[in-house]
């Protein structure tokens, strides 16, 4: 997966901006999610959906869109989506571009528990005039989560691209995590799973960073031209416990 093939959508998303209509689409999307029965499929139009507060998902659900055309935009300092799932519940996101105006300490999209199937999605923070960029990641996976994140692009995140926390065990496959302010991929706590054939390059931190007792399987990942190390280990913060490659 090459950088030039995956350039950010950037300001082109708003070339024909219609804020009132986009806000109406965002409100309609929120109502659909609130009213959806477990396991429902919600197809988003290939337009910009502007939301003023996070979309709350607490049941199995599928959200699908048209890659490069279906966009969900969250306001400055707002999270776009917060998902809390039970062990047997599944969240599917396909073909969505998620943009945050500014940055935040929390994740743009946060999923805790359950199983995820996130494919062909794009995440990035779009800097705004006079709006500070805080240390927020694009996608945060936590709890006893399983599932797959594949063929996604994360760029221009205010800090880390993807964070895996708690006891989450996702399979991260063939994602492009590049040109983010922090690291491409960071594992914390007891997180595991696998990271295979991801491109974690040109980030402001590490390509891949493992912290605490995280123990993912890493295979055939590209970690080039990062400002820090390609792959780094920070075990417990004591002297002599850190390693880098």
Would you write up a description of this structure?
The protein has one helix spanning 19-35, and strands at 40-43, 48-51, 55-57, 61-64, 71-74, 81-84, 90-94, 97-101, 109-112, 115-119, 122-126, 139-142, 146-150, 153-155, 162-164, 171-173, 176-178, 185-187, 194-196, 199-201, 208-211, 217-219, 231-234, 242-244. By secondary structure, the chain is mostly beta strands. It has one domain. The strands form three sheets. The protein has a nine-stranded mixed sheet. Strands 1-4-7-10-13-16-19-22 form an eight-stranded parallel sheet, with no helix packed on it. Strand 23 and strand 24 (242-244) form a beta hairpin. The protein is globular, with a radius of gyration of 17 Å.
